[in-house]
Amino acid sequence: MAVYPCDTTTDRFPQETSMPETTASVAAAASAPDRAVIAGPATARGRRARIALRGLQVLLALFYAIASALPKLIGHPSAAESFAELGWGSVGMYTVGALELAGAIALLVPVLQSVAAMALSALMVGAFVVQTAVFDGEHAATPLILMVPLALIAWARRRHNADLVRLLRRRA
After folding, report:
1. Which of 37, 74, 85, 119 keeps 20 to 30 A from 102, CA to CA?
2. 119: number of CA atoms within 13 Å, CB side?
3. If you write DSSP's letter for every residue of 40-75 in order, what string do you get?
4. What pLDDT digit, counting tens, does each position of 79-120 carry?
């Protein structure tokens, strides 16, 4: 069984190299405290976890783009009525729709995915407050349910925040 270093918190893999499969090399690699060493079955488990997390991101992005943002951006009567009842009108409806669409797209961009999940969570806090205060909590559970996978994504992809800061500093 070959042992490869792997960072399980990101989608990045080091370039694969062949390593001798001796007990001494496995013991030496396992004793390195500053490197995560993953053996065969754990690598497969980590890969499955990354695939599942990516699938969750795609599902949430589709939900926010199609089911949530699109009705607001096309001015669907159900969305228009809700925002008229809030007193926000079409400007508020288009603004929230644009924010949801931007968040959906950003969930699919590796360097933005953690920030997008946090921003969409903040938007869901606002949606929860509006649902409970204005609409008597009719659909108040929906934003809370959506915040759970968003928090998971924000936490699991948090290492990308450092990449984003480096990118922004380089451009400044």
Report:
1. 85
2. 18
3. HHHHHHHHHHHHHHHHHHHHHHHIIIIIIIHHHHTT
4. 999 999 999 999 999 999 999 999 999 999 999 999 999 999
Token pair of 74 as six digits? 């096309």
Read off the amino acid at residue 39.
A
Element (H, E) at 8: none
Question: What pLDDT, on a 0 to 100 scale, did the predictor assign at position 63?
Answer: 97
At residue 133's C-alpha, the angle toward residues 129 and 139, to 5°, is: 70
Residue 111: strand, helix, or coil: coil
Tokens of 58: 């795609």
Tell me if 69 sits within 8 A of 127, measured CB to CB: no
Q: Which amino acid is at 112?
A: L
Residue 4 to residue 15: CA distance in whole angstroms? 10
* pLDDT band at residue 41 under the 50/70/90 scheme: low
pLDDT at 36 over 70: no
Domain boundaries, the chain: 4-38, 54-171
